[in-house]
Design brief:
The chain is α+β, with helices and mostly antiparallel strands and 302 residues long. It has 3 domains: 85 residues, no CATH class; 55 residues, no CATH class; 99 residues, HIT family, subunit A (2-Layer Sandwich). 38% of the residues lie in helices and 14% in strands. Helix 4 runs parallel beside helix 5. It starts with a helix and ends with a strand. 15% of the residues are buried.
């Protein structure tokens, strides 16, 4: 590459999603054109204000507080000093040797986990991954079922990056702004629905029963009740095998409600013209639930 091409790249062709590219080039120029990865990493560290702020906070909250309590150091504002008389050369050598020995013994026992809090992935989610996550979600919040028309949708890390979560599709789910803002970094719930959670002994999971669906959407389907209480009695059933209404996810409940509205409109426009509807559900055998797969009864009346 010629110098002119190099300048042209810097001025107009370099696409940036972070400060890394110009910082690396600037560091290489300062080093005469060549540097090891270690030298580059040290240069990046010197430029990273967030790292400096992190360690200022960590030092004051942890070692400073503990060592002050033991009378080893003293603090005057931002100035930290040893609370012992000035050391001579031999004393300084002895202290450095003891500290190095304690450091190496601790590192040998714990390994790189000592620095695990700084070995995290903080790069932004790429546009490709963001699109894939949104497409997989069907444009809905995985927790409450809200669409982009109802609330801004965020791409959320299931295992947060502060806990070593990665920028991979398997670790990304879509949550609306409200649900995402209420989710702490200790919550690692995957709110996405597992498509293949079926019970081979369950009627509502069987392929034959599913083929009789009269309406369906992403997470639910509707079919005629196998034990109708009245003509037109239908069931709205989540595709995933789950015990009852209370174990359905918010997204499943939202899709089931959508199907109930679709079916109501169909019944009302048919020749018989239903005048009313009984909508209900039973949760648990003591309540009369005969099949351990969540379902909602819709019975036209009149």
């Amino acid at each position: 590459m010629t110098f002119e091409d190099f300048i042209g790249f810097l001025e107009s062709k370099m696409r940036m999603s972070h400060v890394y590219q110009p910082l690396l080039i600037k560091t290489l120029v300062a080093a005469g054109g060549t540097a090891t990865l270690r030298q580059l990493a040290l240069a990046f560290l010197a430029e990273d204000e967030s790292q400096l702020l992190f360690y200022e906070d960590r030092i004051e909250k942890m070692p400073v507080r503990v060592l002050k309590r033991h009378g080893v150091i003293k603090q005057d504002g931002d100035l930290i000093s040893l609370a012992i008389p000035r050391l001579d050369y031999q004393q300084r050598s002895k202290v450095r040797e003891l500290c190095e020995r304690r450091l190496q013994a601790f590192l040998q026992q714990r390994g790189l986990d000592v620095w695990a809090n700084r070995m995290l992935e903080f790069d932004p989610v790429s546009d490709v991954l963001r699109y894939q996550a949104l497409a997989a979600s069907g444009g809905r919040c995985a927790l409450c079922g809200a669409t982009k028309d109802e609330s801004p949708l965020h791409v959320d890390h299931i295992l947060p990056r502060s806990r070593h979560g990665k920028n991979v599709l398997a670790n990304l789910q879509v949550l609306c702004a409200e649900c995402n803002s209420s989710k702490g970094n200790k919550d690692v719930t995957d709110f996405r629905v597992a498509e293949a959670t079926l019970d081979p002994d369950c009627l509502f999971c069987s392929p034959g029963f599913l083929k009789g669906a009269i309406a369906e959407n992403r997470l639910s389907y509707a079919a005629a009740s196998p034990e109708p209480a009245a003509p037109g009695h239908v069931l709205v059933i989540p595709r995933r095998h789950t015990d009852d209404f209370f174990t359905m996810t918010a997204a499943e409940r939202a899709d089931a409600e959508d199907l109930l509205r679709v079916l109501r409109n169909q019944f009302q426009t048919e020749a018989s013209g239903a005048l009313g509807f009984a909508v209900g559900m039973k949760c648990g055998a003591p309540a009369g639930q005969a099949r351990a797969h969540a379902h909602i009864d819709l019975i036209p009346r009149g």
